[in-house]
Amino acid sequence: MAASSPPASVSQGCCFPFWTPDWLRFISLRFYIFLIAKCGRLRPGRAAMSLVLRNLQRAVPLRRAPLRRQVQALRGILGVREFDLGIICVDNKRMQRINRTYRGKDVPTDVLSFPFHENLEAGEIPQPDFADDYNLGDIFLGVEYIFQHCKENEDYYDILTVTATHGLCHLLGFTHSTEAAWQKMYQKEKQVLEELGRHTGARLQPLSRGLF
Fold first, then answer.
1. Which of 5, 45, 80, 127 is 20 to 30 Å from 108 by CA-CA measure?
2. Residues 6 or more apart whose Cβ sits within 8 Å of residue 35
3. CB-CB contact of 62 with 146 (8 Å)
4. What is the pLDDT of residues 107-155, one digit of tens each?
5. Which of 87, 57, 48 has its CA nearest to residue 70?
6. What would you measure as the largest C-alpha separation in the chain, in angstroms?
7. Rg of the chain (C-alpha set)
8. Of 87, 101, 199, 92, whose CA–CA distance to 136 is shortest?
C-alpha cells in the first residue's frame, strides 16, 4: 500500500480550525498527547484481549463454543489473556497446503503455530511497549486430521484442547527440536493440562508425550 499521505486519524486528529483560540488549541493538543500516551503505549493490568476463532472448513462438525471456552481457560492459565490470539480451524487440504508452504512437508498435520513474537525463550511472556504488539499470533488447527486420528475412547473436543495447548506453547517459545527442549515443552503442557483438569475434571495428556 502506498504511503503518500498520513493516516486519516493523524491528519484529521491534529487539525484545528483557524478560528480556534490559542488556549483551546493548547488544551486540545495536550489532550491529544494524553490520549496517545494512554492508548498507544500500554501499562500493566490490561483488560483481556480478543480471541478470534474461525472455522474455515466443513469436513467435520465443530462447535466453536466449547473450544472457545477451553482456549480462554488455557490463556488464563498461561497468563496471556491480555494478548490477542487467532485460532483458525481448517481441513486436510488447506492444512497440507500451509504445511507444504511453510515447513516443506507435503502432508496434512494437526497443528501449526505462527508466533507474533519470534525468538522467545521457552515460556517467556512477551513484554510489548505498544498496543499493536499485544498479539500472540495464530494457531491453525487441522480439525479434520484431528477428528480422523481420534481413538475410539477419546473425546474429539478433549483432543482439540490438548492440541490447542501444544500450539499455545509454541507461541510462547517452546519447541521439541531437541530432547532437552521437548522435556521443557512436555512438562509445561502437563502442568497446564493438570491445572485445567482441576477446574473441569478432565484428565488430559500432553500432545508432545510421544515425540521423543
1. 80
2. none
3. no
4. 999 999 999 999 999 999 999 999 999 999 999 999 999 999 999 999 9
5. 87
6. 75
7. 22
8. 87
CA quadruple 98, 99, 103, 105: dihedral positive or negative?
negative
Q: Answer yes or no: are the C-beta atoms of 112 and 89 closer than 8 Å.
A: no
Q: How far apart are CA 141 and CA 158, in angstroms?
A: 13
pTM of the model: 0.78
- All three cell numbers of 109, joined, read 498435520
| Apex 103 CA angle, 156 and 108, nearest 5 | 35
* DSSP for residue 119: S
- Spatial contact of 50 and 41, defined as CB atoms under 8 Å apart: no
Cα–Cα distance measured from residue 190 to residue 211, given in angstroms and rounded to the nearest whole number: 14
CA angle 117, 118, 119 (to 5 degrees): 125
Handedness of CA 40, 117, 206, 179 (dihedral sign): negative
> Residue 93 corresponds to which cell in the numbers above?
487440504
Q: Quote the cell numbers at residue 118.
A: 519470534
List of domains in the chain: 51-210 (3.40.390.30)
